[in-house]
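REQUEST ID: PR-0412
SUBMITTED BY: lab tech R.K.
PRIORITY: routine
TASK: structure prediction, single protein chain
INPUT:
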Amino acid sequence: MGVVLLAVPHVLVMVEDARDVVSLEVLDVGQAQACIVSLPGGHRWLVDGGGPGSRYFDVGQAVVGARLAWGRPPRLDGVILSHGDADHSGGLPWVTGMFSVGRFLFSGDMPGGRTGERLARALEQGNVTQEVVAAGDRVDIGHGAVFQVLHPARNFGCHDANERSLVLRLVRNGHGLVLLPGDVEQVGIRALLASGCGMESDVLILPHHGSGSSLNRDFLVEVAPNVALCSCGYLNRFGFPAEEVVRTCANLDIPLHVTSGEGGVIAVWEGKDSGVRVVSGTGCITHLNSFLDRFSLLEQVQSSWDDLFSRKPDS
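STATUS: complete
OUTPUT:
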């Protein structure tokens, strides 16, 4: 029975990788952000790595890396850093140092201090290809999927780190799946709107963790998401997501899922022409239950589990 329990996650991962499924997972990393984009065949990209952690707790090791390595080898097609703030970059030194990473994309702005030093050292030691991207660039990630870089332009004049966040649109076969705007605020959002770039997407990650400083109704209307996701910490001192953000989403009939109340959230597209399905939960156990249910194995495993723990010890 023990061997079966150990093998089940790996078998389910293999079956899942064979399906035509694209997903975006917003990890529960507290008042920070880390997203995993998964493609058929086990190809994965990490967008931001959570943080900030401390000398005694590394969110990259304890949360992000643990989730990435669940049933899988420590390998990523690429890592993207939206901007250098600690709540987006803090977990990346450990992940890039311990995983095989194909490419590292960023706007040119790296984190400072100890995090920046550790990240630069990990990228160098891992011989990771580093690429600076800007508005207009397209990153082909396979299986008909592309990251469109919408912001910042190479001549963008604002030097504020949040405003210079990379804004990415994940597109598959011409259809906008997700808009990931980092911590962009009003200056960056106005630049996006003025650029005329296409932003319509099934899913919107709320900019700056749902801060009121990033609330722009025209932006929400332009993206026209079917659902919005927000990464923020439980009882965070900023009050994110801001009440006015929650209210505006409700007024625009945009369902909102927040990690502080629901744990990790996954948006799933099954097949090239399917709509988005959102699953929220608390981590690996939730995902395992979802897989088991999908393949009609949950009842069998639950029965075996109950039987295992209902046995009386030998007298």
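NOTES: The chain has eleven helices and 15 strands.
REVIEWED BY: pending
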